[in-house]
Design brief:
single chain, 101 residues, alpha+beta, 434 Repressor (Amino-terminal Domain), 4 helices, 41% helix, elongated
């Protein structure tokens, strides 16, 4: 019995590897959401507190953190997120999730 499986090296973008449209934007959104989630965890914030800081509704933040961010656009500049410990708020510089109606 032979094993006919082949292994293909990833491009680094799982969305592109899966052949999904707008793969780069989806990757940027996923990276942004991952960083937001990490900051929330580092600060021990509740979703309610984080949603208030981000100026979005808590159910929207919950959906975003679960990977349901298709209804959100990303302003495309240099994506980076910083946590301002002095002012206790999350600043998104260059990349921002915006609700798309």
């Amino acid at each position: 019995m032979s094993d006919d499986r082949t292994v293909t090296r990833s491009s680094g973008n799982v969305f592109a590897d899966a052949g999904l449209p707008d793969a780069h934007t989806q990757l940027v959104k996923a990276q942004l959401v991952s960083r937001i989630d990490a900051i929330i965890g580092e600060r021990g914030l509740s979703q309610r507190e984080a949603a208030r800081i981000l100026d979005i509704a808590q159910p929207d933040l919950s959906n975003i953190l679960r990977g349901r961010f298709r209804g959100y656009s990303v302003e495309r500049r240099r994506p980076s997120i910083e946590f301002d410990l002095h002012n206790s708020h999350i600043m998104m510089t260059g990349a921002k999730l915006n609700s798309v109606s």
